[in-house]
Each structure stands twice: as C-alpha cells, then as structure tokens.
Amino acid sequence: MSESVIEIQESQFDQQVLNQSKPIIIDFWAPWCGPCKAMGPVFGELAAEYAAKMVFAKCNVDENQSIAAKYGIKAIPTLMIFQGGQVVNSITGMSSRSALETAINSAIAGEAPKTPFVVQ
Fold first, then answer.
1. How far is Cα 37 from Cα 50, in angstroms, rounded to an integer?
2. Is 59 a catalytic residue?
C-alpha cells in the first residue's frame, strides 16, 4: 500500500473519516477481488498526486464488515467520497483514471458530481 493511503479500521472510522477536515475517498476492496487489484496502482498514483488536497484510504470489506454493511457496499471495488462526514459520491466497479480524477476534482472543488459515476 502507498504511504499516501491510510488503512481504515472500524474502531477508528469516525476519527479517520467522519471527522476529517479534507474530502476523503475510500476504496472498499478485498484481497481476492481481481478488479480491486487492477485499480490499486491507479488509486495509489492518484493518492500521491492529490495527497495535499484529499485523503485517500482503503477499507478491506472482509475485515470491516460492519462498515461495508452500514454504507450498503454490495459490490467491490466501490469508491466513496466523503465530505463533512457525508457521502457525496460513489463509484462502483472498474473505473478509468480520468473518471476518478473528475470525481476527485469535483470533491476538492466542493461541487456536486456532474454525472453519476456509478457503474453497474
């Protein structure tokens, strides 16, 4: 895992996510998930690039089942962007780097998503 990406733990979720002053994007994933593994390097690159403006985190759904259940994670990878303790965008499934950058830049600018990013 990149040093720019934090690992979310159930016991620290409020502190790590809900009380965060910057926007935070969480990659809900599992080690057995092929698409999750494929998106990992892009997520790490974006984390390094945008670390000053946004927090990047990963949450293993197998180890943190109550968080996954609370946020209705039914498919992985799912990326959720939080601002002010609220989910402001959700991206499910494989996504291109450009789609992720658009979502990240919208969150950093405090804008609502211009298009739905949910891929079914």
1. 20
2. no
The pLDDT value recorded for residue 111 is: 76
Q: Helix, strand, or coil here: 50?
A: helix
What's the rounded Cα separation, in Å, for the pair 90 and 82? 9
Q: Which one is catalytic: 2, 20, 33, 83?
A: 33
- φ, ψ of residue 58 to 5 degrees: the values are -125, 145
Catalytic residue, chosen from 36, 57, 67, 68, is 36
What's the CATH superfamily of 3-107? Glutaredoxin (3.40.30.10)
Nearest alpha-carbon partner for 58 in 96, 12, 93, 7: 7
pTM: 0.88
Looking at residue 48, what is its pLDDT?
94
